[in-house]
Amino acid sequence: MTRTKPPHSETSADQVVPVKQRGALARLAGKLSRRALHTLALVPVLGQAINARLLSARWEFDESHRVETHDGAHVALHRYLPQGPRRGNPVILCHGIACNRFFWDISPERSFAKALAAVGRDVWVIEMRGHGQSHRVDPLKPWQALSVRWDFDHYVQGDLPAAIAYVRKTAGTKKVDWIGHSMGGMVMYAYLGTTPGEDVGNVVTLGSPTFLDNRFWAWRLATAISLPMQMVPHWPIRVGAWAASGVVLALHPILPLPIYASKNMSARDAARLFHNVLDDISGGEVALGLQFIRNKGFLSRDGKVSYADAMREIRHPFLVAAGAKDYLVMPRDVRAAFERLGTKDKQLVVFSKKNGHSHDYGHADLVLGRNVRTEVLPVVMKWLEERTDG
């Protein structure tokens, strides 16, 4: 008996090629229409309406909590519950300078926090005082900033221990794991260097230095004008960043920005960074940061404690990551922090083409990049899983 193919299954090269061409044309048309829409973001009024539609965050965490600190401030903690059985310690995600909770939750599709919750982690995102929904200066009462000089030491001594204690109590665990980006990793360097740290398990830092190479032009400029910068009590970065989001959306990736590798960021995520993530900072934070840049010294506010030297006492497991094309925190700066850690259980990863990754990563795209879910997160998850008891 001879079998024959039904007519609808017959194909030929002449039939296949047009289908492929149509697919390519559809993709090109979609790309051009998106580019046209993004360009309209530059138009006054209309552009703001487009930004509000395309960029505003319309998703929420599973829970949000308010935690009091020992000095009368409060910090916000936002939680994604684990999907399925909980694995390991709860993990706290901490943003860097001038950022808020949306850094870890940039969109439902690219959320670093949601990805961890999807594999069974109990995920908590902290917003340090002065950021997001934490204790901050009322934008309608800017004079309040004159009496508030929050800085790095407030985070280390107030916000961080309060958040850790609250998460441990709520989750019913002895320890928490910590993942920090930039300054969010530095606060843990300082905390573990100056306390026993028995409430902390494993630590991951992404682009977190102990000094900055001030040969980068932005750091040179900041050093040159450090005196007037320190006199400003409050820096309203959020308003300017929100206004600039349309420009970023329209001109990405043509517009060169040092905070991320543009080829590793989608236009929409880059604009969301400005529209939703970038936040105000205190004059005290600026002052201490400028001292850090100018003197290359990782010190406490009064200069009596060298956080950098104290890192020799740390014995916790550390995964330290850097981006090969990070111009804000260069790989050499991250390597210096790695070498200061006293622990024997430590690993350094540089995300670069040379090391088999799709791009040479920058600073913010270590968390927000288009390939984070396939390149950065698997490294973090595997490292944590190897140190998970149950």
CATH architecture label: 3-Layer(aba) Sandwich
CATH superfamily: Alpha/Beta hydrolase fold, catalytic domain
CATH fold category name: Rossmann fold
If you compute it from the alpha carbons, what radius of gyration comes out, rounded to the nearest whole angstrom?
23 Å
Q: Structural class, from secondary structure content?
A: alpha/beta
Query: Count of helices?
Result: 14
Strand order of the largest sheet: 1-2-4-3-5-6-9-10
Mean pLDDT: 86
- For the record, the count of structural domains works out to 1
First-last Cα distance: 60 Å
The total of beta strands comes to 10
Order of helices and strands: HHEEEHEHEHEHHEHHEHHEHEHH
Helical content, roughly?
40-55%
* Beta-strand share of residues: 5-15%
> Given the C-alpha coordinates, what overall shape results?
globular
CATH classification, class level: Alpha Beta
Spans of at least 5 consecutive residues with low confidence: 1-17
Largest sheet report = 8 strands, mixed
Keywords:
390 residues; alpha/beta; Rossmann fold; disordered N terminus
Secondary-structure blueprint:
Layout: H1 13-39, H2 46-55, E1 63-68, E2 74-80, E3 91-94, H3 112-118, E4 123-127, H4 152-171, E5 176-181, H5 183-194, E6 200-206, H6 217-224, H7 226-231, E7 234-235, H8 237-251, H9 267-277, E8 281-282, H10 283-295, H11 307-310, E9 318-323, H12 331-340, E10 346-351, H13 365-368, H14 372-385
Helix pairs in contact: 1-8, 4-5, 8-9
